[in-house]
Amino acid sequence: MSPADPHPHSMVIAADYRVPNPERVWPLLKRRKSALAGIGAHHVLLYTSTHDHGRVLVTIGVRSREPIVELLRSRVFFDWFDAVGVEDIPAVFAGEIVERFGSIAPSARTAPGVVLAAIASVDDVTTLAAEIRGALTRFEAAGIRETRLFRAFDDGHEVMILQELDDEDRARRWIDHPDAAAPWITGAGVGAYPPLFVGKLFDMMRIDE
Amino acid sequence: MFVCLCNGITGQVVAEAIADGASTTNQIAAACGAGADCGRCRRTLRLLLGTSSGDRGGVHT
Questions:
Q1: Is ipTM beyond 0.95?
Q2: Which domains does chain A have, with CATH numbers?
Q3: pLDDT in tens, A24-57
Q4: What is the fold of B2-50?
Q5: Cβ B59–A121 below 8 Å, yes or no?
Q6: Which residues of B touch A119 (CB under 8 A)?
Q7: Global pTM?
Q8: Minimal Cβ distance to B40: which of A89, A94, A121
Q9: B20 in Cβ contact with B26 (< 8 Å)
Q10: Residue B39 region, left (φ>0) first, then alpha (ψ -120 to 50), else beta?
């Protein structure tokens, strides 16, 4: 993205980190709604880990003309980390959606699913998307309702994958025996990449522009 | 991933600094600026120092 770009870009910013008290996270996010609107945020989703107490994943959908570096440097993020008691600022994913692969219609879903999130480096994002497309029947059989693939702005090999599965047992089985079209399962947790995140959607906020 | 929000430094850039010989967070800061301002990303820098390939090493088949 160039600083002079006149068109707003849709992007996703995601951070996976630990907080002393997960219960405080959502009220503090809601309190920052206007500041988030100020950077072009339109959706904020909070996921809490099911087994790793204190671990949360926040994804923010943003539409902005600002370069990503300027957005991340804004006080909104630092103030937010301060408010939730995070001293060590985590690495932050910033990218855009490549494709959403839905294998189960939302109307057919009977209960909230479990979310499995991964950030990893892959050979080729376009090839990965094609492989996922070709494996959707197997994904569905494994209890995967939806797969969202995001590509990082700063690294052409880096992806974030958010998958929704039927339940925790399915998620564990998927992690233990991933499909060949899901190489990110073994690539998470390397270097600055956080380990696989297994959790549930805590809440979602839509911010009107 | 963006490791240092103050200076917009990515994991790739930090990995290059490490590959070029940086072996402490101070040396990384001197080489590329990551961690040079507020210093709150130094925990992540230490993680990267622990995996000399930086962000990479995951899923290249």
A1: no
A2: 9-94+200-206 (3.30.70.100), 97-196 (3.30.70.100)
A3: 899 999 999 999 999 999 999 999 999 999 999 9
A4: Arc Repressor Mutant, subunit A (1.10.10)
A5: yes
A6: 1
A7: 0.90
A8: A89
A9: no
A10: left
